[in-house]
Amino acid sequence: MSNQLTRRLALLDDDAHRSLLGQGLRGIERETLRVDQHGHLAHTPHPLALGSALTHPQITTDYAEALLEFITPAEHDIALTLHRLDTIHRFAYARLGGELLWSQSMPCELPPDSDIEIAWYGKSHIGMLKHVYRRGLALRYGKAMQCIAGIHYNYSLPEKLWQVLAVNEGVMEERRSALRDFQSESYIATIRNFRRHSWLLMYLFGASPVLNKSFLRDRPHNLEPLSDDTLYLPYATSLRMSDLGYQNDAQSGLRPHENSLESYVTSLMDAVNRPYEPYAALGTKKDGEWIQLSTNVLQIENEYYSTIRPKRVIRTGERPVQALCRRGVQYIEVRCMDVDPFEPVGISLEAGRFLDAFLLFCALEESPFISAADGQVHASNFARTVKEGRKPGLTLTKDGKEVPLVEWAMELIERIRPVAKLLDTQFDEPVHEASLAVQKAKVEDPSKTPSARVLDEVRALGSANKFGLQQSQLHAAWFRETALMPAEEAMFLEMASASLAEQAVIEQSDTGSFDDFVAKYNSSTLCGE
Q1: DSSP alpha helices (H): ranges in 70-175?
Q2: Which of 259, 380, 387, 497 is the 20 to 30 A CA-CA neighbour of 80?
Q3: Among 8, 40, 32, which residue's Cα sits nearest to residue 21?
């Protein structure tokens, strides 16, 4: 352990501070495609019974109209977060009719692009802005990309914990702005450590080594055929997070600096304001209809597809980057987790426990600045793991040398162990250490990884689509077996009704033209505005 990690663990293990470990927040966003009974993409609109995709706080859509997104409230314990996620699934399933929720990150067999509907949010200015942004994504990346699903893990530590560390490390407690800056830069440091070590998450939790060939259309690739409709790589862990995912030439050179919040924001704002010639050739409108919000490298900052983001809850009319500038980083969003097709809600409690230990380790450990060359090494390690993570003898680059992935993974797990032990002081049993044992077993035996298990199942069934449908049907039976408690049912019905009413109010209160609304939105990109 480094001196900093040892010192911080000892500080937080003090009787006066130990309870802070249980006061952070965990939230999950789970994406999932709606499909029919045959495992084909649903072409029905977002079910009205679920509420408004524009305003519902827990049930919305992401890119495609059929791509549901379930958003849990933030909770102190991941076990409660997962219970919340389970109740959202049960409410949704009671209103999906004969439709199923797709069990995998990579999509089912897809129809032609022209038959994939882009998410619709109503006729209000803000609803149309969200829709046109997705039209731009379809233009830039293709509609198949809008059908990929993932698990986003939102993680924060309590402000009081950052204050304890700040005071211990010489930041004056009475200077509120200094504490805010310390917290923001500490989250940015956490992100740097995540960049160094996130390849481990892809080995342990990657679950997309195969895909249906309809996803690639006629794009060039180096995948191998597994069956008539299925492509794969024999040692892949997560094709979703490979170069087959949300990437293109415009974003290829975009590497936001994460050595400070200021440099991160500045680099993103540059991309939002920098024209990109191929997009400029397309324009923002075609036949009088908006086709993208701008012709710049990014339409908005969230178009930058990153495995992790610094976040701050935004206020009405505020852009994400403005919230970060004005009030600092509030939490981080981990975006690289595949949907686990063996888990009804897409992620297990054991995975959540490990993520908590992993992220706290990243937050407490020393985190030197990352040079451009360092960044390339970290990106290469990640890329090797998603495409070849289970390959016998695979090496990664560490401190300028090639080391076996297995050896480095074991070392990391042992470095995380003291953090897991500290977290377990909040529980009656060693749940975080138990999760470490499960992960260690995967390193010792690659056949226990989700990616290997998926590949075995797909080989047995002869098709990625058959496996996805099988798991989707199993999960549907699981959720439909037990109804919600009456109070939970009533709460979701009220949220659905209130969200529809709220959307109606927004649509009725709009003033001015949509063109003016977009122009105003595009101009409000700088901090302080």
Answers
A1: 78-93, 125-141, 159-168
A2: 497
A3: 8
Q: For 436-476, what is each residue's pLDDT tens digit?
A: 999 999 999 999 999 999 999 999 999 999 999 999 999 99
Tens-place pLDDT, residues 355-372? 999 999 999 999 999 999
| CB of 39 closer than 8 Å to CB of 147 | no
H or E stretch covering 192: helix 176-197
Distance, in Å, from the CA atom of 248 to the CA atom of 271, rounded to the nearest integer, reads 14
Spatial contact of 527 and 326, defined as CB atoms under 8 Å apart: yes
Residue 333 has a CB neighbour count (10 Å cut-off) of 16
Question: How many structural domains is the chain composed of?
Answer: 1
- 526 lies in a domain? no
Q: pLDDT tens, 119-136?
A: 999 999 999 999 999 999
As a whole number of angstroms, the distance between CA 506 and CA 212 comes to 40
Encode 209-228 in three state secondary structure: CEEEHHHCCCCCCCCEEEEC
Q: Which residues contact 104 (CB under 8 A, 6 or more apart)?
A: 149, 207, 208, 339, 341, 454, 464, 467, 468, 471
Summary mean pLDDT of the chain: 94
**DSSP characters for 258-313?**
-SSHHHHHHHHHHHHHSB-HHHHHH-SEETTEE--S-SBS-SSGGGS--SEEEE-P
Buried b (16+ CB within 10 A) or exposed e, 270-301: ebbeeebeebeeeebeeeeebebbbbbbbbbb
Helix (H), strand (E) at residue 184: helix 176-197
**Of all helices (H) and strands (E), which one includes residue 319?**
none
Residue 108 domain-assigned (yes or no): yes
- End-to-end CA distance of the chain: give it in Å, rounded: 44
- Supply φ then ψ for residue 4, to 5 degrees: -65, -45
For residue 342, is it within any domain? yes
d(CA 529, CA 51): 33
> Under the phi-then-psi rule, with left for phi > 0, alpha for psi from -120 to 50, and beta for the rest, what region is 290?
beta
Please give the structure tokens belonging to residue 180.
């805010």
CA–CA gap between residue 163 and residue 375 (Å, rounded): 30
Chain centroid offset of residue 499 CA: 24
Tokens in use for 244?
């087959």
User: 12 burial class (0-12, 13-18, 19+ CB within 10 angstroms)?
Assistant: buried
- CATH number for the domain harbouring residue 471: 3.30.590.20
Within 10 Å of residue 352's Cβ, how many Cβ atoms?
23
Instruction: Look at residues 407, 333, 405 and name the one whose alpha carbon lies nearest to residue 155.
Output: 333
Domain that holds residue 49: 3-520
Give the pLDDT band of residue 529 (cuts 50, 70, 90): very low
Q: 63 near 146, Cβ under 8 Å?
A: yes
Does any domain span residue 525?
no
Other Cβ atoms within 10 Å of 316 Cβ, number? 5
